[in-house]
Amino acid sequence: ANAKTPAIESAVAKVREQANDMEMTGSFMHLHLGIPKDGLDNSDLEMHHSVLNFNLDVTAEQNLVIISIPTIADPSLAPHGYHIVHAYTAASEDFSDWDKFMESRKDSGKVGTSPNSRAASKYNTQDGYEELKAEKAEALWKAVECVIPDVRERVKAEGAVSIVGTPLTHRRYNQRYRGTYGPAPSEGKDVWDLPGCTTPIKGLLACGDTCFPGIGLPGVAASGTIAANTLVDVKIQLELMKELRENGSLQ
Description:
28% of the residues lie in helices and 13% in strands. The chain has 251 residues and is α+β, with helices and mostly antiparallel strands. The chain is globular.
């Protein structure tokens, strides 16, 4: 009863071929800050900023830094008088720079234990780790300084927080192979070429960042919606959307 049929084997091979045809995006450096906001004029700050060198490719290593300041929109996210700042390199970090700090060079992306455990974070005690972390974080500090010039002084204030995350941190907490952001279409293709929710295996639907529309929380949520909608008649979907709109759950 458990024997594989030629049809199933062919379907599985097709799914594997689709997966192997994808590229892997790079990893991230992260800078998480909690800083006093006194003297900062909110009219000069946006919730999101992008800092990059237009003379370089947007995907060049450490070129594009995204800065998010969510407390511009919702001050209640931080203690009174403070801003939250999150800066990160946009999936442009080369994980091979960090290979030497891993106990095993064979990586499945799974840490095998709690991300908060000492075993999962053993890499950060390796010689040279803190030095490389500081070196790689410099691009983030310089980017934030374009928006908040005195940010390095602000993190010295009482109550301020400054935390740097590396590709190994990203891998550890997100359980992603080599700290990747996720899969991307192969060279010469775009998101429209990603597989949809249907698979060669009848009755099996797929969703997640390997499916259209791709990586990122909005993309993954959309892929789940597409898969769910595939199971339901269009009339039922429209009726549900009408009900959600009437009770204010859908704009």
